[in-house]
Prior knowledge:
By secondary structure, the chain is α/β, with parallel strands linked by helices.
Amino acid sequence: MSNPVRIGIIGYGSVGSGPYTRQIRRMQQEGYAIEVVQVCDVSEGRRQVAKELLGVDRFSSNHADIIENDNVDLVLVLTSMNEHGPLAKAALQAGKHVLVEKPMATNLEEAAELVTLAKSSPGYLVPAPHVILSPTYQAMWRRVHRGELGKIRLARAFYGWAGPSWGQWFYRPGGGAHFDLGVYNVISLTGLLGPAKRVTGLAGTSIPERVVDGEMMKVEALDNAHICIDFGEGVFAVVTTGFTIQKYRCPAVELYGDKGTIQMLGDDWDPNGYELWLNEVGAWQIHEETDPNWPWTDGLRHLVECIQSGQKPMITPEHGYHALEIMIKAEQAGRDGQARTIESTFPALNLYEKEAEQDSAHLIHDRTQL
Ligand SMILES: NC(=O)c1ccc[n+]([C@@H]2O[C@H](COP(=O)([O-])OP(=O)(O)OC[C@H]3O[C@@H](n4cnc5c(N)ncnc54)[C@H](O)[C@@H]3O)[C@@H](O)[C@H]2O)c1
């Protein structure tokens, strides 16, 4: 077995102690050589939680203790968003591998520094979200890129909910629905359709006050948005997102091509299979979810595998930067009505790797039979 990848966690709040702790335990049960050596949170109260959930005694309220710890190979940055950029930068500079929750930074200057640093740093930088790793996303990507749907002309993606009742930072500058929610859809769509050329949209604050952490607070970040993305050659997409949505039953991602339609069910961070219409078949085909337990924290498994194999991660800092540029400029466009050009690009995804797995094996319902 290879040497264990030694993990230091910075930020042990809701996702640190919940989904990422479950992912770490799951990976250990599956035989991955990983161990958590230290946890950091500015809140001392998280010390006991880390001890109980991870059995880790080493706790610090100062992130430098993780970043300077020679026994840490991989730093997980799971703090509130404004801290992501500076913490990821410090960890990369210290030669660590870094998984940073989304967005990788809350402004383009910090994100650009991370992209540059990641090129020269010995450590890999994997920015969340990890939606491109799900088997359903990859199956859809391959169908699109094998040309089964013809040229994709139009797309939509959707994700929202009523919004967190914890973490006032979600509703302050550096937070908001684009960074917290829309980011999944923006990564999904650009991963499928390639780099965006231009954005516009509507973005604003619809619920001016909320109770968060038991206190009424003023909402300063956007909580309601449609992001319109122009991919060039007349190909358009829209992302609908907000902390204003109680429930929905629409697909997560819809792609409309010259030969058919494909739509992901569930959410792109928690897919539930996909539906496919091909003109030549003339019926909807429903593809069952192949991995109902796929976790949105899967980037950790991917990063650990890359560290152990020496392969470059499929999730790139350039893609994270591109998504951030789209979100920031869509917010600006939403506020002043002026469309913005997108300057950045990112390496095209190549998800053909797992082609061997039968993409059509899980067709449960072919309505031609009805
Ligand atoms: N909550 C979700 O459902 C969810 C899902 C996916 C991703 N995320 C992302 O995960 C991140 C964390 O979200 P959360 O819901 O766990 O928030 P949270 O507020 O519950 O936890 C963040 C933790 O980070 C700590 N922290 C802040 N600054 C720090 C610093 N400088 N050093 C050390 N600790 C620090 C806080 O004390 C807190 O315990 C966010 O980026 C969010 O976008 C959240």
